[in-house]
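INFO batch 0412 | record 1 of 1 | parsing
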Amino acid sequence: MEKLEKLQMYVNGEWIDPASGEWFESYNPFTGKPWVLFPRGGAADAERAVETAKKAFNSGEWPKLNATQRGQLLRRLGDLVAENAEHLAELEVRDNGKLYAEMSMQLKYLPQWYYYFGGLADKIEGRVLPIDKPDHFTFTSREPLGVVVAIVPWNSPLLLTAWKLAPALAAGNTVVVKPSEFTSASTLAFIKLIEEAGFPPGVVNVVTGFGLDVGEPLVTHPDVAKVAFTGGVLSGTRVYEKAAAGLKKVSLELGGKSPNIVFDDADIDNAIKGAISGIFAATGQTCIAGSRLLIQESIHDQFMDKLVAFAKTAKMGDPMSLETQVGPVTTHPQYEKILSYMDVAREDGAECVLGGGKAERPECGDGWFVEPTIYDGVTNDMRIAQEEVFGPLLSVITFKDDDEAVEIGNDVVYGLAAGIWTSSIRRAIDISARVKAGTVWVNTYRAASFIAPFGGYKQSGLGRENGQEAINEYLQTKTTWISVATETPNPFVMR
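INFO prediction complete | emitting tokens
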């Protein structure tokens, strides 16, 4: 048997073994076999990383850099990501099974986050206040928080790291990144670019391992000022609870059960592509998945015939092949979870019109593949309409009119995203205003940008990533009062 490579963590500018002396296997979802060993970090590694980040924040080279210099480092990092995009994309595919066609495009686009926030670094400004107190000059300044812990999921490791890392560094913080235990390889490769870009030691650190072993010690550490988390609601709630004990700032990007609403005046062909993109792209493993397809009754039959016919053409297989359209499920636990929800759908009485089980096509080999699956006749009280599956499982629900579409669309605990398909500008504006979601796409789906704020309503999270709003998540405001009075007034009276 081929000996697997042991990777190392990165702390204080050094590549180190875990304090435990233990590693664990990471599996390639296309082959179902281990391909590399990740360090099993623990409390001692978390402690070392936070101490290092705290020291780098308070002393040394990093706090001496001005905002323009921080921006220059970020732009240099963006250049290096661009130069290494193909290699990083290949690592992500091996790690999480997403299509190379998508990951290659994503990694080529990724530098824009570092360029954008690099440019924003020296646009952070305070204000002079027209204070109502005589003989006082009063102003505000915006300052970094300190040590930030970034906890990143397995579905888009480097993209979701950038959403946190770029604004955190632009604001002047130091960072400890905890990637998913399933997909740490690309993050560890990316950190080599941090070194090459010239970031001082300790500014960015990476500790790997499991949530309870290393994630919790990071979240609860008294010297951590902020936790930025992307993941499921249960894990996010636990992070929120643990961070609250230390009064830490928290941003959470959690799950979704997004409605993708098709009205009878929509362009049918485009809406079908939008429905496919919303649930079968990335094998449905996205928080923004349009997992509830709401179709107006008058076009239901026509739409479903075309939708099923189109979905049947989806090509499965090796995610590195540019011809593949649906790849494997990233982790074996997630694979089992998706299959279990198919049992739930049958028990609830949903009608399976496509898929409904394991993919046993020859081109899928020994990988963790699930057939693209569509359930019709779903009602919004069914579990598959209420619970996030995080896989290629589509629930189709019909509605009569605009009011019912909005009612069904909002009738979940989530509020991350929504899609609207219509040719009416009146309807587009009205429905997008009434849907309770952080992002609404009209006649498109699954678009994202470094410029556009992203985040959820309700149980889909707290705070915003991307855009100018994102950097505010990593800053705090200081107010400074300067008296120019020649004499101090009565000291026993508040001025």
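INFO post-check: The chain has a mean pLDDT of 97.
INFO record closed
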